[in-house]
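INFO worker-7 received task bundle
INFO bundle size: 2
INFO processing item 0
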Amino acid sequence: MPELRIALEPASLMATNSAEAPAIANQSSVRHIIAGAFLLSLFWASVCVLQAQQSGSATVEQKPKFQPQLVTKTVSVINPPARGSVTTTLKGAELAPNASGQAKLKMGEMEVTIEAQANGLPAPGSFGAQYDDYVVWAITPAGKVLKLGVMEAKGNRFELKTKSAVRSFAIVVTVEPYQQVTRPADMIVLEAPAGGQTVAASCEFLKGGYAPVGYVFQPIDTGAGYPPQVLQMYNARRIAMLAGAEGNDYFQVADESFNSVLSSAQRQKKFTDAILKQATSATKYFEAARAKALQHLVQSTS
């Protein structure tokens, strides 16, 4: 059964022909009312599915349990020149040994322009149905983490072009469930290798923070053409619910936005820019709710 079903009227039903006779117009109005009532019933049924369905299963007969950990790993910080540009290779990690890539850093007076590309990466969902994005991170020599952005699929490769005020950093690419994650997962697929002009630094990565032990997520239905912002909002919500975040304030704020997104899309018969912006905001709050719910469980290992 598809997980996400928001019934939207075709655009053809939203306009009437001014040349039609009054009787035909009245008949059309009746048909619109009946159709609207039917679509509304489908919509609210879909909302119930979204709110109730957990979309996964545990491999053992017990309540799913999160066991998040902060795992310390060593990364290689690039030492670029003060001017000009430098290109570093990106090596496939254990999760993606066949992947490869490069990152070109162009040094400006105030900012660094970063152009990263990767080849040989599978779709993010191949690592688990909860994963949807490849996120690029910059890690400073002191271990501070900055999110550079999300790689976009361009044919058979993934690319990102962005800027950073930080000039010296390691580059790590992880697979994540949504763009609004606040800490890199230990799901590393690409990283700058050691050697050359690099220096070692330590950084903490989140392990087990997005899925309970033994839990298998069901894929989210992407065939209906829903915008990525809406699908990621739903993904963030189901992860937060599994983490037991429903009782905290962040979740309440996110859930209000979640329901507003669905009802606004039904009312306006489309996903407007304002609705998509609200969906992105909801995802951020679901992520904050998940992090807060698991905070007391997080253990640090080295």
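INFO item 0 finished
INFO processing item 1
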Amino acid sequence: MAGSRTSLSQMALLELKDLHVALEDGTEIVKGVDLSVNTDEVHAVMGPNGSGKSTLAYALMGHPAYEITSGQILFEGEDLTEMEADERAQRGLFLAFQYPHAVPGVTVTSFLRSAINAIRKAKNGGEDDPIPIPEFRKELLAEMDRLKVSRDLASRYLNQGFSGGEKKRVEILQMAMLKPRIAILDETDSGLDIDALRVVAGGVKELVGSEMGALVITHYQRILDYITPDFVHVFLDGRIVEEGGPELAHKLEAEGYERYEVKA
């Protein structure tokens, strides 16, 4: 399958097979996508605004406003297509939002510990297996320092009153703490200054490896200056219209998407 280093005898960690996604009113947005992503791979999905990139991200994570009308999402060979968002997260999928929502009344610390414990419970056959508080605290503070997230944010309500940069850093902090197998980043670069972008991109880059792969969804090449993709997929009108290596991202930056729009 295009965009995978695996041989045909090996199944990729995440596989999309002829995926079609529609809105609740039946409008088709994603129109047949085939994509394979493994650990230790960075895939960039690049396209203009309105091309369906974010719809693809939300559909992968199981957002109820988007219906998978045909095709499959396979994760380690298991069909996730009918699963709820929390079940997908427990399997190892993670979505960093373009516009993270505030959660009044729930601190960053409480949110992260609850999320980690939910995953641990799912992996322990439904039996509670809470992370010891000293272990959690030690890991949280280490990751906050590494990602340059102010320790003050740990006791504040999730994303409430946070700057754009703080919200995005906390998204990557969640990723670092939850340790997903595949992380989907939906335009994580939007609204970030260069310093914040460098920190966020650096955090993603450090986490991608033998235990994690990433699907980076973006309009611009900017974030890819800091995270070099292994594969670039050009997304237009709900479809992948071209695939290549990192050089394709530079070509898009120089030439734009107009030549694809003529074909579409």
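INFO item 1 finished
INFO post-check item 1: The two ends are 23 Å apart (CA to CA).
INFO post-check item 1: The CA atoms of residues 52 and 151 lie 36 Å apart.
INFO worker-7 idle
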